[in-house]
Amino acid sequence: MKNTVIRINAYFKTATRADINDLLSKIVLTERQTRIFEMFYLKRQNIGFIADSLYISQRVICEELSIIREKIKKAIPDEQE
Question: Considering its fold, how many domains does the chain have in total?
């Protein structure tokens, strides 16, 4: 899991809006996952704030982020490692 997080964080440090749009076109997210993705990766909001905003427990946010990360991992290029 740690390597996945590092790989995804490295991707988002250099990703352009076009890269993110391309990524989102390759993965299928539920409505809730889309909101969490936007809040966490694009707006850089923390898990506690996201949980409070969406009226969901922090544990559920973490679980959803794990699912989102797995989807992202499959969609981003390997050279981003």
Answer: 1
Say how many CA atoms lie within 13 Å of 36 toward its Cβ.
Answer: 25
pLDDT tens per residue, range 1-31? 788 899 999 999 999 999 999 999 999 999 9
The CATH number of whichever domain residue 72 belongs to comes to 1.10.10
pTM for the structure as a whole: 0.88
Q: Encode pLDDT of 55-69 as tens digits.
A: 999 999 999 999 999
Phi-psi region of 55 (alpha: psi -120 to 50; beta: other; left: phi over 0): left
Helix, strand, coil percentages (3-state) for the chain, rounded to 5, are 80, 0, 20
If one counts every other C-beta atom within 10 angstroms of the C-beta of residue 74, the result is: 9
Whose CA is closest to 10, among 76, 57, 59, 71?
A: 76
Expressed as residue numbers, the domain containing 69 is 2-80
